[in-house]
Automatic annotation (TrEMBL):
Molecular-function annotations in GO: 3-oxoacyl-[acyl-carrier-protein] synthase activity
Residue ranges occupied by any Beta-ketoacyl-[acyl-carrier-protein] synthase III N-terminal domain in the UniProt entry: 116-194
Stated name of the protein: 3-oxoacyl-ACP synthase
Lineage, uppermost ranks: Bacteria, Bacillati, Actinomycetota, Actinomycetes, Mycobacteriales
One annotated GO biological process: secondary metabolite biosynthetic process
Domain of life from the UniProt record: Bacteria
Xref: InterPro entries: ACP_syn_III_C (IPR013747), ACP_syn_III_N (IPR013751), Thiolase-like (IPR016039)
Residues forming coiled coils: none
Gene source species: Mycobacterium noviomagense
Pfam families per UniProt: ACP_syn_III, ACP_syn_III_C
Length: 340
């Protein structure tokens, strides 16, 4: 009997570091910022921060524990393909893949550290895992995402008073992909908009390259003009990739059972579900509990929906996100089969 060649996302598991940090934490540092009232930076009620000595590998190890409990150490140890994304790498010269493999007792044939996927990295990871497994490069893949910039970049003393600092939160997630028909990945769409690749900038005052020593803490270079462009791109790109997937699987977006996106702010969340004609009750988010989780947003929200019973076996799940200043976007459709 031939083996199934469908790739399924059979489980996700997540981790949020530390105790929730309330909006009043940032209120005490708030300074004069011309972007303070911008819709882009309306603060969530809570978010989590990575610990001062907590590494991306530590976060992934915590996130993987429930997978180990549910599926056993042997399945995780036998993963053939490890795909990782870390928002803020622990080391500048290499990714976390090797360290994650060692910590989880793996000897994968493939270790891929993705960086360009940004907030859509989980979708990109699904595409890569699906292609590799379908091509015969193994039977299992683990996608590991660590968002760890909130408690490190955005909580610097010179940055935490800015409007941008109160929105991000930290978290980690892992997704287990296998060759099976349990929860098949029906389709994935990834698009690169290279013309926007230089529009997200990391700045200091006075200016210097990010790796050069000197005064002035680094932060994201937002301006009113850049924010306007990013809002327009995100509002367009996420529905574009989501609708492309829906068209190929033959389902109107309004009939999707659950929409899972990244969550930069409330404005994007509202605009995306309106564009896709999906009611708020079928669009899961944890923005007020976790803030902008960047690439961890999709798997954290999917895990929450599964655990809360918001998505049930047989439901069609649509995931979509855009990255950085709009240089990448991706969407994926999944027929959820339940946790085995």
């Amino acid at each position: 009997m031939s083996q199934p060649r469908a790739a399924s996302l059979i489980d996700v598991s997540t981790y949020l570091p530390g105790e929730p940090i309330g909006a009043d934490y940032y209120a005490q540092f708030a300074g004069s910022d011309e972007l303070r009232d911008n819709l882009m930076f309306r603060a969530p009620k809570f978010r989590h921060h990575v610990g001062p000595d907590e590494t991306a590998i530590d976060m992934i190890e915590h996130a993987a524990q429930k997978l180990v409990q549910r599926h056993g150490e042997d399945l995780i140890a036998d993963v053939d393909v490890l795909i990782t994304h870390t928002q803020l790498p622990d080391m500048p010269f290499y990714g976390a893949g090797g360290g994650i493999a060692h910590r989880l007792g793996m000897r994968p044939s493939w270790v891929l550290d993705l960086h360009n996927g940004g907030c859509a990295a989980f979708v990109l990871g699904l595409k890569v895992a699906r292609q590799l497994l379908a091509a015969g490069e193994g039977r299992t893949a683990l996608i590991a995402i660590a968002q760890n910039a909130a408690g490190q970049v955005f909580d610097q003393p010179g940055v935490r008073g800015m409007a941008q600092a109160s929105v991000p939160g930290d978290g980690a997630a892992v997704g287990l992909v296998t060759l099976s028909d349990q929860s098949p990945i029906l389709d994935v769409e990834c698009r690169t908009y290279g013309e926007y690749s230089g529009d997200m900038t990391y700045i200091t005052d006075p200016p210097r390259k990010w790796w050069q020593p000197g005064p002035g803490e680094g932060c994201i270079g937002f301006t009113e003009s850049k924010i306007t462009k990013v809002l327009a791109r995100g509002n367009r790109e996420v529905p574009e990739v989501a609708l492309a997937v829906c068209d190929r699987i033959g389902l109107a977006s309004k009939n999707v059972d659950l929409l899972v996106t990244n969550q930069p702010n409330r404005v994007f969340l509202r605009n995306w579900r309106e564009a896709l004609e999906i009611p708020e009750s079928r669009h899961v988010d944890t923005f007020d509990e976790c803030g902008n989780l960047f690439a961890a947003g999709i798997p954290v929200n999917l895990d929450r929906a599964i655990s809360d019973g918001q998505v049930k076996a047989g439901d069609l799940v649509l995931m979509a996100a855009f990255a950085h200043a709009g240089d990448f976007a991706g969407a994926a459709a999944l027929r959820w089969g339940g946790r085995g």
